[in-house]
UniProtKB/TrEMBL annotation:
Belongs to the binding-protein-dependent transport system permease family. PANTHER family: ABC TRANSPORTER PERMEASE PROTEIN MG189-RELATED, ABC TRANSPORTER PERMEASE PROTEIN MG189-RELATED-RELATED. It is a multi-pass membrane protein. It holds the Pfam family BPD_transp_1. Keywords: Cell membrane, Membrane, Transmembrane, Transmembrane helix, Transport. The chain crosses the membrane at residues 9-30, 72-94, 103-125, 137-159, 180-205, 242-259. The keyword Ribosomal protein does not apply. This is Carbohydrate ABC transporter permease. It comes from Geochorda subterranea. Residues 68-259 form the ABC transmembrane type-1 domain. CDD domains: TM_PBP2. Its main location: membrane.
Amino acid sequence: MARAVAKGLAYLGLGAFAVMTTYPIVWLVMSSFKTTQAFQLDRLGLPRRWMVDNYVQAWRIGQFDVLMGNSLLYTAVSTAAIVVLSVAAGFAFAKLRSRATPLLYGGFVIGILLTIQSIMVPLFLMATRTHLYNTRLGVLMVYTAMGLPMGVYLCTEYIKGLPDSVIESARLDGAGYLTILWRIVFPMVRPVVTTLAIVTIPGVWNEFMLINVLVSDNALKSLPVGILRFSGALSSDYGKQFAGLVIGMLPMVVFYLLLRNQLTKGVVAGAVKG
């Protein structure tokens, strides 16, 4: 009896938590279909007239077609670069040790402690002097560099747990290090690669501060900047503002819904291995 009561209370608590978590999203979507006047008259009720035009106008004002394309490019390329470079560096630090390994590894890992605010000014000066300011290449290089410290740390610690005998057997069979890395190490580090991608994709997609430091051209900015355009004079136009927020939120929601099983498996596998 006591066990059933405890189980019921647990379900009740989880249900209340689920409602508190999802209701703000439902309220935001519902409000995005209202006019400003309808929202001010009834902030919690369903819209009497569903204003789909809010999304059309929000998409045009925010220039989301351009910004979403840029966000996809920055996220896909920088995530792929971070994963490949982190696994390669982790393999070298874990299995190809030399006297310089502790120094080089420490140089990467100390980057975890750096905050974006502390490097904004030197980053802007470097991008300007190297002519990478206002270029997609400059954004991709910075995003990749910012993700490498955590990526190298995770991959190095994971690869250290792989048996040396596998690497030595491949070397005795005549395989080079690049062959070992591609055909042996990459398939074995799939859990940590999944974990790294889980951490990197939302971080790059939602990044807001660096993109404003590295580019001033609106055609090169990313999705979060489009939401900023609904501040100022448009801050009181609630329908379009909420529609812009939903457009900005939707890709990450779809990402989590489609890949939730893989995300859970990747985190659990990485945690168990670590």
